[in-house]
Amino acid sequence: MKKMITSTHGAFAGLLSAIVASLCCITPVLALFSGSTGIASTFTWIEPYRSFLIGLTLLILGFAWYQKLKPRPQDMDCVCEDKKPKFIQSKTFLFLVTLLTGVLLTFPYYSNLFYPDTSVEKQVVYVSENNVGELSYSIQGMTCTGCEAHIENEVNQLKGILEVDANYETSRTFVKYDKSKVRSDEIAKAIEKTGYKIVE
Q1: Looking at the whole model, is its pTM more than 0.70?
Q2: 17: domain range?
């Protein structure tokens, strides 16, 4: 007997595809919570394939919904009772998977919400103009706002940091700091501790 692909198979395949598509942006947040900040850039290689994976996810889920909603031919000879489908085979389950998939696919747009807002915590500090240093780094591996927030969070943990601005679109991080409290090599180490590479 030929086994058919069901909407449940499609739901799980779509969910898996969405997880893979968002892995490059989920990993920095998981790294923050686990304390293993160095793994943040592990899946940045997925970023160039993200559009393809999103398209694949949408196709799979579309097919799953088609399988779920298409009319079933009724067998005239069968006088069977219509059994209620198991939850995993229901439209509710497929809807929940679709909703979760949407949350995963849009994760890069709100991932920075998982990082503490250090700008609020910083106190006003008066620093002599002679002690203010500015650095600009070219960073390899940033792919979304979660990457930016991860670098900013790590650098802001150093004493003497006045301002940090990471930008994944330009692949640059700008740091303003108090030279009397922190050295430039400490800032570079904090950035590289996240797993992203400083490119000369």
Answers
A1: no
A2: 7-70+87-112
